[in-house]
């Protein structure tokens, strides 16, 4: 389905994403139903890896994805006696993985946005006085960027970190690091041009 008004790059990216996720969906087809009632062990053996791949797509971190799936199975174990139909267990697990992934992402966001009490974000007058006018403009423009964009640029150009190291330090993917850096540089250019 093509939407008018979008450029070919966006359409190409969309096709690539659709092709990739479609391929993963094919690889992760539901296993054939076992005869007789399913046990928790059967569910774990048959569905664990598919649920981990789902969680990885949502949280973009394999270790965290494993934890999310483990929590989903733990929750199912706690409620197993109240489960009316073992076939509903797969739906329960899928929903638990999605909700657990959302919780992880919310906690990440909260942790990134936390500013300790009495933390100052302003630079001292002495440190700014030692900078040239051009450098002062850059520092001022940096302070106007959203926190994630500022983090990526500071870690890249001040910290000298690679994309992989920035991704690890901030808890975002390498692709997000690249796109965030690109957007941040564009924003910096606009801010500095309008100043």
TrEMBL record:
Residues 136-186 form the RNA polymerase sigma factor 70 region 4 type domain. GO terms for molecular function: DNA binding; sigma factor activity. Signal peptide: none annotated. It comes from the Bacteria. Residues 43-109 form the RNA polymerase sigma-70 region domain. The keyword Ion transport does not apply. Keywords: DNA-binding, Sigma factor, Transcription, Transcription regulation. InterPro entries: RNA_pol_sigma-70-like (IPR039425), RNA_pol_sigma-70_dom (IPR014284), RNA_pol_sigma-E_actinobac (IPR014325), RNA_pol_sigma70 (IPR000943), RNA_pol_sigma70_r2 (IPR007627), RNA_pol_sigma70_r4_t2 (IPR013249), RNA_pol_sigma_r2 (IPR013325), RNA_pol_sigma_r3/r4-like (IPR013324). GO terms for biological process: DNA-templated transcription initiation. PANTHER family: ECF RNA POLYMERASE SIGMA FACTOR SIGM (PTHR43133:SF50), RNA POLYMERASE ECF-TYPE SIGMA FACTO (PTHR43133). Belongs to the sigma-70 factor family. ECF subfamily. NCBIfam families: SigE-fam_strep, sigma70-ECF. This is RNA polymerase sigma24 factor. It comes from Longimycelium tulufanense.
């Amino acid at each position: 389905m093509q939407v008018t008004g979008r450029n070919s790059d966006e359409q190409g990216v969309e096709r690539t994403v659709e092709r990739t996720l479609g391929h993963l969906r094919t690889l992760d087809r539901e296993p054939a139903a076992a005869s007789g009632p399913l046990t928790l062990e059967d569910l774990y053996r048959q569905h664990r890896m598919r649920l981990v791949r789902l969680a990885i797509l949502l949280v973009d971190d394999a270790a965290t994805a494993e934890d999310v799936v483990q929590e989903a199975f733990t929750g199912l174990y706690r409620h197993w006696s109240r489960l009316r139909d073992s076939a509903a267990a797969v739906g329960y697990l899928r929903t638990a993985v999605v909700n657990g992934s959302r919780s992880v992402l919310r906690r990440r966001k909260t942790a990134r946005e936390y500013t300790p009490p009495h933390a100052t974000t302003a630079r001292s007058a002495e440190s700014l006085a030692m900078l040239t006018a051009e450098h002062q403009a850059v520092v001022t423009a940096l302070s106007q960027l959203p926190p994630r964009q500022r983090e990526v640029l500071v870690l890249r150009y001040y910290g000298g970190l690679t994309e992989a190291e920035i991704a690890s330090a901030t808890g975002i993917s390498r692709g997000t690091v690249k796109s965030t850096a690109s957007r941040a540089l564009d924003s910096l250019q606009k801010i500095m041009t309008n100043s």
